Amino acid sequence: MEILQPVLPAQVARRIRGMVRVRDAVRRCLCSQLNGTPDEDVVAARQQLNQTYDGFVARFGPLSERANTSAFRGDPDLPLLLSLELYDPETGRAAKAAIFRERTIQKQRPIAHAGTPPEALLVTLNERGCVDLDYLAQLLHRRPAEFLPELKGAIYLNPQTNRWETEDDYLSGNVRAKLSAAEAAALVDEQFAGNVVALKAVQPTDLSATEIDARLGSTWIPAEDIQLFATQVLNEEGISVSHAPQLGLWVVRGG
Fold first, then answer.
1. What CA–CA distances, in Å, run from 252 to 55, 213, 227, 237?
2. pLDDT (tens digit per residue) in 147-197
3. Residue among 111, 105, 97 nearest 39 (CA)
4. CA distance 232 to 241
5. Angle at CA 141, nearest 5°, toward 138 and 144?
6. Distance CA 39, CA 27 (A)
7. Strand pairing partners for 189?
8. Whose CA is closest to 156, among 189, 202, 199, 124?
9. What is the rounded CA–CA span in Å between residue 81 and residue 63?
10. Residue range 54-103, pLDDT digits in tens
11. How far apart are CA 241 and CA 224, in angstroms?
12. From residue 147, how far is each of 135, 139, 162, 197, 247 by CA, in Å?
């Protein structure tokens, strides 16, 4: 059975081909800014974008005109094309966006120096995503022993992992377990005494029995407890309860 493909009107097909050329030109322009391309090549890509866009507009009008958007409807790159224009639907005129005149993606310039430890910490977190003492030392041109006192309270050495962590990371999560680990570490090394003080300050308040809502199916309740509960409530023997946490599945079998 032959499947007939819809035939586009010739003018619509020409609009689509023209918009595809503009799309390809803007992609090249953006890639030239992202890939560390020499400035002269960035300028050449921008000039090519201007020429391609001007040629399309001279023939079919602004990209944002209804006839053009209708022809390209459904294409995921239509928003990219529309972002090239500042379109006024009342006058039907479009002004070119900044990408036709200048860089819209600036080169990332590596930071080689930071004035203070807090500033260096922000740079390190932005560049490395974690507390990197070697990188901090490189930015400050100082040894860790010299600047660590100035970061007291902002970063903590985790005795469980032996890694430095930010205040937000270290003083969150299972702070009860972290406190136990810090107290044990402080008995051996007094540098962890500050960890103990900070962790004690963020310990959650213990809930009373009446404040705990224990519902059947709660994943924190052991399956054995639910099995015992069912046995006592139903006064039946041979009841078994199992839980598959990976599937979120509870299985209850009667006697």
1. 71, 21, 8, 13
2. 999 999 999 999 999 999 999 999 999 999 999 999 999 999 999 999 999
3. 105
4. 13
5. 75
6. 16
7. none
8. 199
9. 7
10. 999 999 999 999 999 999 998 999 999 999 999 999 999 999 999 999 99
11. 7
12. 12, 11, 18, 21, 48
What tokens were used for 161? 């992992």
**Higher pLDDT pick, 215 / 203:** 203
Report domain extents, the chain.
10-100, 113-151, 156-204, 218-253
Average pLDDT, the chain: 91
Tokens of 120: 């260096």
- Is the distance from CB of 119 to CB of 130 less than 8 angstroms? no
